[in-house]
């Protein structure tokens, strides 16, 4: 199954979304890079890189706001792992939901991206 990587400024927001997706699409691996080490709001490229290292298959990367996207894109430029990680600029909650359900249904990365583009662009 395609993994999801969620990059958010808020750890609580990301954890809540992961919980919801776990109910709607059980079995889909969801990796979080959210908040800062001290619990405050923000994004940290080292957390994004750690999420990249944790993926077990091709992955879709979704971010919540502008600087999360900038940090995620930088982390993608630095990534040299074995899996394909693709950023998709879609609404955070809705995009993650569609992607998780599509992954659960056995869709591959390209099929999920097409579904997201069809839904949100």
From TrEMBL:
Record bears the keyword rRNA-binding:
no
Going by the entry's taxonomy, the superkingdom of the source organism is recorded as Bacteria
One example of the protein's molecular function in GO is:
phosphoenolpyruvate-glycerone phosphotransferase activity
**Gene Ontology BP annotations:** glycerol catabolic process; phosphoenolpyruvate-dependent sugar phosphotransferase system
Question: Which of UniProt's keywords are assigned here?
Answer: Kinase, Transferase
The EC number(s) attached to this protein equal: 2.7.1.121
A GO cellular component annotation here is: membrane
Q: Where is the PTS EIIA type-4 domain?
A: 1-121
Instruction: Please tell me whether the keyword Transferase is annotated for this protein.
Output: yes
Instruction: Give the PANTHER family listed for this entry.
Output: PEP-DEPENDENT DIHYDROXYACETONE KINASE, PHOSPHORYL DONOR SUBUNIT DHAM
> How does it associate, per the subunit comment?
Homodimer. The dihydroxyacetone kinase complex is composed of a homodimer of DhaM, a homodimer of DhaK and the subunit DhaL.
Q: What does this protein do?
A: Component of the dihydroxyacetone kinase complex, which is responsible for the phosphoenolpyruvate (PEP)-dependent phosphorylation of dihydroxyacetone. DhaM serves as the phosphoryl donor. Is phosphorylated by phosphoenolpyruvate in an EI- and HPr-dependent reaction, and a phosphorelay system on histidine residues finally leads to phosphoryl transfer to DhaL and dihydroxyacetone.
Identification of the protein by name: phosphoenolpyruvate--glycerone phosphotransferase
